[in-house]
Amino acid sequence: MAFPSPAQDYTEKRVSPNDVIKWGGNPALYLAEATNGSWRAGIKQGAVLVINRARKPVDGSIILVTDSGEFEVKRLKLHPTLCLQSLDDLDNVRLIEGGDLEGEETIVWGVVTHIINDACTEEFDDCPLM
Question: Which ranges constitute the DSSP H helices of 1-130?
Fold first, then answer.
């Protein structure tokens, strides 16, 4: 009869995306592929975006909005005025009339909770302008 090795008490469990993102059968989580990259937001072209439709967006959240039937990834700014900001061009903002996030033209579809990038391309650089 063999005794178990004491080293087995210290083995670590493998990390899986299900553990990190906590899918847990949540029907409000969706995956989307980023068609355009955004250096400021840390999104490479072709990255996988995990979108939570049940989470309430806060100031500075990266959100997926539908604007006239098309999906766009924007940053939500609540202060000093309610607006949607472009991820790369900080001066490109669109004000939301009357503070209605579920208006006729612009609808917040979900909040981006995780960004999964391909790390093999070495696209990001500490000094992108040099």
Answer: 17-21
What does the longest C-alpha to C-alpha distance in the chain come to?
Answer: 75
Contact 109, 89 (CB under 8 A): no
How far, in whole angstroms, is CA 52 from its chain's centroid?
9
Could you tell me which of 67, 86, 64, 66 has the C-alpha nearest to residue 77? 86
Task: Quick: pLDDT tens for 1-52.
Answer: 677 777 777 777 777 777 777 666 677 888 888 888 888 888 888 899 999 9
What is the percentage of the chain residues whose pLDDT exceeds 90?
16
Which two three-digit tokens encode residue 83? 């607006």
3-state secondary structure of 20: helix
- Do the Cβ atoms of 43 and 34 come closer than 8 Å? yes
